[in-house]
Structure formats: structure tokens, C-alpha cells
């Protein structure tokens, strides 16, 4: 029977931890009592994507949700820019154009490489036949 995870570690030490979580809008701020930093995730539906890690000098030790909530609200208002949805819609086509331009460039490079390879092969054949 094949297992999902394979390991050579035979030390089966069980540890527990408490993670405090504060969600502001679509951002989830999580701090594990074992570590001094806060992990920030973008949440939506059933997905969760890591955004950044807050690890500043002189961060307080968070014991209660209220302390974490105040800290995260301050961080949110200092680091999150709220923009109009029209700005997002205007940005999206620009990204698509940039992606299309990159695809076009890659296609041209591929064509040039094939052409260069063909020319090199013909030159080698001509030199070999001479």
C-alpha cells in the first residue's frame, strides 16, 4: 500500500499550538503562538493564498484576539490601498495585452531559432559536401 507522505523521521513527537486569527475583509491575519510573526493570507471562497509576513521589530506578544485585531487594523490601514472596481477593470486588459505581447515575442523568437537552426544545418551540409 502506497502512502501519501514518505519520511525517514522516526521521532513521532506530538506538539500543539494555538493560532489566533483575525479577518479583515478578504485578508486573514494569523499568528501561531510558537512564532513571532503574523502570516497574511488572501481568502476567498474555499481558497487561501499567502500574501506576506509581518515581522517587524518590537512587535508585541499577542495573547488575546483584541490585541491582534488592533495591531492588524493599524497594519491594514497603513498598507492596504482601496481602489475603485473600475480601476481593476482598466488594469485587467493591460495585463492581458502584456501577456499577449510576451506570447507574440516568444513565438517570434521560436521562429527565429528554427530559421537559424535550418540555416546552420544547410551551411554545415554545404561545407561537408565541399
Number of DSSP helices?
A: 2
Radius of gyration: 27 Å
Q: Secondary-structure element order, as H and E?
A: EEEEHH
Q: Classify the oligomer.
A: single chain
Basic shape: elongated
> How many distinct folded domains?
2
Widest β-sheet, arrangement of strands: 1-2-3-4
Distance between the termini: 64 Å
On the 0-100 scale, what is the average pLDDT?
A: 82
> Which bin fits the share of residues in helices?
40-55%
Could you give a short account of the major beta sheet?
4 strands, antiparallel
Q: Would you count the extended β strands for me?
A: 4
Low-confidence stretches: none
Class derived from helix and strand content: alpha+beta
Beta-strand percent range: 15-25%
Walkthrough of the structure:
This protein is of the alpha+beta class and 130 residues long. The protein folds into 2 domains: 61 residues, no CATH class; 48 residues. The chain has 2 helices and 4 strands. Strands 1-2-3-4 form a 4-stranded antiparallel β-sheet, covered by helices on one side. The longest helix is centred in the last third of the chain and has 45 residues. The protein is elongated. It starts with 18 loop residues before the first strand and ends with a helix.
Amino acid at each position: 500500500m502506497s502512502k501519501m507522505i514518505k519520511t525517514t523521521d522516526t521521532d513521532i513527537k506530538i506538539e500543539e499550538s494555538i493560532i489566533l486569527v483575525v479577518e479583515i475583509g478578504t485578508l486573514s491575519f494569523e499568528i501561531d503562538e510558537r512564532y513571532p510573526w503574523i502570516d497574511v493570507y488572501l481568502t476567498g471562497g474555499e481558497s487561501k493564498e499567502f500574501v506576506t509576513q509581518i515581522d517587524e521589530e518590537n512587535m508585541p506578544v499577542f495573547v488575546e484576539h483584541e490585541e491582534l485585531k488592533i495591531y492588524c487594523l493599524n497594519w491594514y490601514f497603513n498598507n492596504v490601498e482601496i481602489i475603485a472596481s473600475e480601476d481593476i477593470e482598466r488594469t485587467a486588459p493591460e495585463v492581458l495585452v502584456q501577456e499577449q505581447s510576451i506570447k507574440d515575442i516568444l513565438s517570434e523568437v521560436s521562429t527565429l531559432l528554427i530559421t537559424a537552426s535550418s540555416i546552420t544545418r544547410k551551411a554545415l551540409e554545404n561545407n561537408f559536401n565541399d
